Amino acid sequence: MKQLYFVLPALLTFAANPLVAEQGLTCSFTTECIDTEACEATSYDVAITHKDFTSTEDGMDASAVWTDDATTRTLFLRSRPDILFGMWADNDGRQFGRLMTDGAGDARYIVMDASIPMMIGYYGTCKEAE
Q: CA triplet 83, 76, 114: central angle to 5 degrees?
């Protein structure tokens, strides 16, 4: 128990002052397509925070955070000069999402749920958070 008194303050200090700077993205999706239904207009916004990429040629963060109105989840995020992609999975992979953006910021986000089954596609843009 004594060790806990020494380790806990160190962990709290590290959590409050991480050594790695964070960056952010915001994505706004304006079109939603559900399986075989016709696509419709939508307003779905996402915020993503991630660590600074150590390489501009091939950056990676396996602990990025995806936040929208419904949930917060861990996201694997990978960045290259002309593309950024992210993915998450829940329920042993039965539900997953995949985000892809090109160098211009055009974005596509696909969500699949094998337990229903269902697929939803979103189209929009992503940019660096302000």
A: 100
